[in-house]
UniProtKB/TrEMBL annotation:
InterPro entries: V-ATPase_G (IPR005124)
Subunit structure, interactors included: V-ATPase is a heteromultimeric enzyme made up of two complexes: the ATP-hydrolytic V1 complex and the proton translocation V0 complex. The V1 complex consists of three catalytic AB heterodimers that form a heterohexamer, three peripheral stalks each consisting of EG heterodimers, one central rotor including subunits D and F, and the regulatory subunits C and H. The proton translocation complex V0 consists of the proton transport subunit a, a ring of proteolipid subunits c9c'', rotary subunit d, subunits e and f, and the accessory subunits ATP6AP1/Ac45 and ATP6AP2/PRR.
TM helices/strands, residue ranges: none
Organism of derivation: Galeopterus variegatus
Skewed-composition ranges (Polar residues): 1-12
Protein name in UniProt: V-type proton ATPase subunit G
Swiss-Prot/TrEMBL keywords: Hydrogen ion transport, Ion transport, Transport
Transport found in the keyword field: yes
Family to which this protein belongs: Belongs to the V-ATPase G subunit family.
Compositionally skewed regions (Basic and acidic residues) per UniProt: 14-30
Gene coding for it: ATP6V1G3
Taxonomic placement: Eukaryota, Metazoa, Chordata, Craniata, Vertebrata
Length: 124
C-alpha cells in the first residue's frame, strides 16, 4: 500500500507541477500579449501625436507661405502700377515733343549749307 500511496503522491505532484507549468506559461503569454498590446497602443499614440504635429507644422507653413505670397503679390501690384505710370509719362512726353523733334530733324536734313570743313587744306 505504501507503494500505491507513493505512486499516487508522485502522480499528484506531477499533476501539480504540470498545473504550475501551465499557469506559468499562461502568465508568460498574457504578459507577452500585454506587452504586445502596450506596444500597439504606444505605436498608435505615437502615430496620433506625429499626425497632430505634422498638421500643426503644415498649418504654420501655410500661414508663412500665404504671408510671403501675399506680400509678393502686393509687390507685383506695386511694380505693375509704377510701370503703368512710367508708360503714361513716356507717352505724354512723346506726344508733347513729337512735333518739335520731327521739325528739327527735317530742318537739319533739308536745310543743308555746303561749307568746306575747317581742317581741309587746299593743296596747290
Amino acid at each position: 500500500m505504501t507503494s500505491q500511496s507513493q505512486g499516487i503522491n508522485q502522480l499528484l505532484q506531477a499533476e501539480k507541477r504540470a498545473k504550475d507549468k501551465l499557469e506559468e506559461a499562461k502568465k508568460k503569454t498574457e504578459t507577452a500579449g500585454g506587452k504586445v498590446k502596450r506596444l500597439k497602443q504606444a505605436k498608435e499614440e505615437a502615430m496620433a501625436e506625429i499626425d497632430q504635429y505634422r498638421m500643426q507644422k503644415d498649418k504654420e507653413f501655410r500661414l508663412k507661405q500665404s504671408k510671403i505670397m501675399g506680400s509678393q503679390s502686393n509687390l507685383s501690384d506695386e511694380i505693375e502700377e509704377k510701370i503703368l505710370e512710367k508708360i503714361q509719362a513716356l507717352n505724354g512726353s512723346y506726344n508733347r515733343y513729337m512735333e518739335s523733334v520731327i521739325t528739327q530733324l527735317l530742318s537739319m536734313v533739308c536745310d543743308m549749307k555746303p561749307e568746306i570743313h575747317v581742317n581741309y587744306r587746299a593743296t596747290n
